[in-house]
Design goal:
Number of helices: 17
Strand content: 15-25%
Number of strands: 12
Radius of gyration: 22 Å
Distance between the termini: 38 Å
Order of helices and strands: HHEEHHEHHHEEHHEEHEEHEEHEHHHHH
CATH topology of the largest domain: Beta-Lactamase
CATH architecture of the largest domain: 2-Layer Sandwich
Helix content: 40-55%
Oligomer: single chain
CATH superfamily of the largest domain: Transcription factor LuxR-like, autoinducer-binding domain
Shape: globular
Structural class: alpha+beta
Length: 381
């Protein structure tokens, strides 16, 4: 089907963000996304890998008895993922489909297809990994009926556009129980949350900070209140937060991955991470605090993985060539080895290194590696 219009996409994105406030809205939102991708059923799930319990499970158009039988094929599905899909290596926000990733003869010979999918008329499915943490994983999936055939490029593009918004919504709702916000005073609800939450207006002007965030302000780490405006300890990271807040106010549909997992460094060099949720649009979100532009959620990096090196490079304003060299330097390459690997002269590599050091506020390669180690825990690298 044709790609949804800008207005339709905007409505879908607003509905996705409303689900961060009230996860019970997911079934109708999944239905809307299914309608935009010619799919007839879908689900979203976040599973605790240590307990095997669902932290979030919402579905649309699957009969409960049918959905409950999926667990009978868990081992077979896990085998598909491990052998063909390789979700642990796949970039976040990049969709994948069963038919494109799994060889046809393997898929059509599986019990999962013949006993579960085929009887429902399911010929294909499209998936997103929406949460990937050491102890939790989240997936968004839609099923395609034989009437519409296999998932096409247009459907991939639509879900690719929606992917970072779904990931932001799930990440934030996984941090806290947002369902309580509609049932009690905002300040009382937010103070029960362990993560720091700062509700801001334009340019990061602070409207409300919960108890956890106020403690951060008192310690001056990893965020501060500077004359009533939210700030990070590093100017580039403050700029990234302000950019995300500005986009949240003016064009949440254009938000993309901006403002998800912004890496913070505390005064004691402990890493933390920030996520920005738009609040300026939508009936549900604007009711929380009508004059608010966004809510910024701050948590220890262990609760939600920060971005990769490319995202860190973006925050510090590195060019594409400097980003490539950053990867080499963090891996421990000497200047000569980095130059050879990148196919540039040592003089060019030296210039790139100088620019990287200046932009990231370090003077030695060891300092650079230490800075990246604080921003990105080893498990993510």
């Amino acid at each position: 089907m044709p790609k949804p219009s800008a207005e339709q996409l905007s409505e879908l994105i607003g509905a996705i963000y409303d689900c961060a406030i009230d996860p019970a809205l997911w079934p109708e939102t999944i239905a809307a996304i299914g309608g935009a991708t010619d799919c007839f059923a879908g689900l979203i799930a976040v599973t605790d890998l240590e307990t095997a319990e669902s932290r979030l499970l919402q579905s649309w158009n699957y009969a409960p008895s049918v959905l409950s039988r999926v667990v009978n094929y868990a081992d077979e599905i896990a085998g598909f993922y491990a052998q063909f899909v390789k979700t642990d290596r796949r970039p976040l926000d990049e969709p994948f489909s069963s038919r494109r990733e799994i060889p046809q003869e393997v898929y059509e010979a599986s019990r999962y297809y013949n006993e579960w999918g085929r009887p429902q008329g399911i010929v294909d499915s499209i998936h997103l990994t929406v949460l990937r943490q050491p102890t939790r994983v989240g997936e968004f999936a839609l099923s395609r009926h034989e009437h519409f055939g296999f998932v096409g490029d247009e459907e991939f593009e639509t879900l690719r556009l929606l992917a970072p918004h779904i990931r932001r919504s799930v990440t934030i709702s996984d941090l806290i129980d947002m369902r309580s916000l509609e049932k009690q005073a905002l300040s009382a609800a937010l103070d029960t949350v362990a993560a720091g939450i700062v509700v801001v207006a334009e340019e990061g002007r602070i409207l409300h900070a919960n108890e956890a965030a106020r403690r951060m302000f008192e310690m001056g780490s990893p965020v501060t209140s500077s004359r009533g405006f939210l700030a990070a300890l590093h100017p580039q990271i403050t700029n990234e937060l302000m950019r995300a807040i500005a986009i949240a106010q003016s064009n949440e549909a254009g938000f993309g991955a901006t403002g998800i997992g912004v890496p913070l460094i505390g005064g004691d060099l402990t890493p933390a991470v920030a996520h920005v949720l738009p609040l300026a649009h939508g009936d549900l979100r604007t009711r929380l605090m009508p004059q608010a532009t966004a809510a910024v959620f701050i948590a220890p990096s262990g609760t939600s993985l920060p971005p990769d090196l490319d995202a860190v490079a973006h925050i510090f304003g590195l060019t594409a060539a400097e980003t490539k060299q950053l990867h080499r330097l963090v891996a421990g390459d000497t200047l000569a080895k980095a130059a050879a690997a990148l196919g540039v002269s040592e003089a060019t590599a030296r210039t790139h290194r100088q620019h990287i050091f200046a932009k990231m506020g370090v003077v030695r390669q060891a300092d650079l590696v230490a800075l990246v180690a604080r921003l990105i825990p080893p498990i993510r690298r």
